[in-house]
Amino acid sequence: MAKIIRAVAGVLRKDNLVLMAQRPQDKSHAGYWEFPGGKIEADESTFEALIRELKEEIGVDVRTLHLTNLISITQSYPHGDVYLDVVLVNCWDGEVSGLEGQALYWQNIDQACVQYPLLLTTEKIFEVLRS
Question: Over the stretch 34-48, which tens digit does the pLDDT of each residue have?
Answer without folding.
Answer: 999 999 999 999 999
